[in-house]
Amino acid sequence: MSRNPARDPREEFLSRAVEIVGADNVVRPDGEDGYLDPYPLNNGRSAWPGVRPGSTEEVQAIVRLAGETETPLWTFSRGKNLGYGGPEPRDHGMVALDLSRMNRILAVDDRLGYAVVEPGVTFFDLFEYIKEHGLNLWMSVPALGWGSILGNMLDRGYGMTPLGDHVKSLCGLEVVLPDGDLLRTGMGAMADSDLGPIFQGGFGPTLDGLFTQSNLGVVVSGGLWLMPAPQAFANGDIMVEREEDLPALIDVLTQLRREDIIQNNALCGNVVRAATMRGVRKDFWNGEGSIPDWRLDEMRREFGIGQWNAKFGLYGDPGLVRRRVEIVRERVTAAIPGAVVDARIYEGEEGRALEHERIAEADRTQMAGVPTLRPLSTVAWASQNGGHIDAAPIIPARGEEVYAFYQEAKALYAEYGFDLYIGYHLYPRHMVHVTMIFFERGNEEMLARARELYVRLLAAARAHGYAPYRSHVDYMDRIAGGFDFNDHAALRFQELLKDAVDPKGIIAPGKQGVWPARFRAARSSEAAAAPSLAPAP
């Protein structure tokens, strides 16, 4: 990056930011420093500069400085949203606003079951705090525990306990607005009140949702709900041998979830997913193209698993947990003859010991609210120098629709020579159709195939009226363009809010495809030249 202010208007901002956060917390992209997607889909990118405030007051000062110098900021909590761009800003000319130094746990209430945290607090941090203080609480964790709790909630991430739909546990935010003012949402808008993290609402329109996947402000703290440590916990497994039994499996599991017999959002994975936990691709197949079905069936038998492998969790009174296990077994085997249903129940001291151990099996760990980094090893599936991008459209939890879209995805993966990784997350009425594309970083031929496959998957989903719940930064405009009812009325309203709240357009321009007025015309012309994800009329 040039140090000539005439060539780089960010230099004035960075120089003056030193006075606010100190020289050690102004990052200029020299050597290995700087912010960049750890798994870039395009080669040759340069790292971005950034600033690391350590307090709400410093965030306010940095935002005001950004307004004075008209320097757009790209905000993130810890930059661990891997597969979606990590900490990399959307576009040139931006400065990363890294909130990882703001890592205080502000409150934990063991009696009512909530915490208040800053954006730099990781799942590991809160887990260790609960353990150290002997609190009777369980938390919900995503696949990797090194990320920000608050950042994950704001981006609608998920875990595998009864509170696994993380954004639904979000309760009360403190937000720095684009002019540097400080706002508290919900009941927290009252001074000297502790109702902020207790009641999801307030007086008047609810504001918390405006700051999820948003560029209307910088969230500097937030409340989240925790669950009481259960007297018993059951880790359940279901194995189904036939590929064509997927519709029945989806239907029975989501019905059990709607009835609250299964208490978490069950996970359903395929053989490729199981293999990524056991080694790298060349350990199982070194041929061209996707691993063929006959080899996947051999691998399934070698692993002692099903073609589909579902996991679920049960929590609470030991007697109720045991009865729920019986109901799950009865319902699943009635719907799918030959299905294997197994469950291990942890009670008393054994259950509490499980809670505080990073046990080896990652899915079971997450269902027990214990953070882990074990799934990180899957990144090496295609290459030791591996990376991935996630494609995760939301689709209705109807078995026949899930199976039909699975077949489309399977055909696309085969066409582009990638192994289809499936990790479905099943909710009462919808499911997250998680597929991952593993690639070798820097391999332009493979990256070109990965980019094209990703766009084809997005287009196939949009043709059915499906869309991802979050996006890689490179594809936010494309996905936002698919929300096209009434000439993109939702996006037009989001732009109206953006221009009113952030007239200088300094907070995360382009996040989720929402650009401020000063960048909109240029971005609109680029979007018009890009392939659309909307179905043909």
Automatic annotation (TrEMBL):
Domain called FAD-binding PCMH-type: residue spans: 41-229
Keywords from the UniProt entry: FAD, Flavoprotein, Oxidoreductase
InterPro entries registered for this protein in UniProt: Cytok_DH_C_sf, FAD-bd_oxidored_4_C, FAD-bd_PCMH, FAD-bd_PCMH-like_sf, FAD-bd_PCMH_sub1, FAD-bd_PCMH_sub2, FAD-linked_Oxase-like_C, Oxid_FAD_bind_N
The protein's required cofactors: FAD
Cited PROSITE patterns: FAD_PCMH (PS51387)
Residues spanning the signal sequence: none
Pfam families (alphabetical): FAD-oxidase_C, FAD_binding_4
SUPFAM superfamilies in the cross-refs: FAD-binding/transporter-associated domain-like, FAD-linked oxidases, C-terminal domain
Protein name in the entry: FAD-binding oxidoreductase
Organism annotation: Sinomonas cellulolyticus
